[in-house]
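[INFO] parsing input record for RNA 2',3'-cyclic phosphodiesterase
[DEBUG] input buffer:
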Amino acid sequence: MRDDTLRLFFALPCPPESAAAICAWRDALALGGRALAAEHLHLTLVFLGQQPRARLDELRRLAAGIEAAPFVLHLDRLDAGRHGLLWLAPSAPPAALERLAAQLRERLQAAGVDCDGRPLHPHLSLLRHAAARPAEAHPDFAWPVEAFALYASLPTPRGVRYRELGRWPLRASLQPPRHAAPP
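[DEBUG] output buffer:
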């Protein structure tokens, strides 16, 4: 990684209480592999990849302009991918989650920021290189999503670490409600 760029992504941070409960559940499954640390659990909204450090202020301003309502995220499905990757996912992603990710992507594209063009696949990674996938696992985790954040993915000798670079609250539109004309 060059010093003038950062590997960035926008994500929903997993609250500490939820992260602790998820990690305790995961660890009880005894699947081996490399577990993600509780403080690094998140659900990626938009992956930006390598971006110039000089763009950080622009990305923070862009994020500050997002208007999205809070919602509840329910993770109730355990899935597996290549190389032993295990993750939690919602069986029915909330429409508010999809709108938030779409709004971020639209604003990034309008600002000329290159980002991953793949469709949103909401998931929270749990393990890398898991030795097995449990036959009977019934996750049931939920948390109120009240903010999203910008993260940098930083390589270290002990693996990748995520550093939060900014956090923004979710809030309903600041516009006053429109009243219908009387009948």
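[INFO] The chain is about 20% helix and 35% strand.
[INFO] shutting down worker
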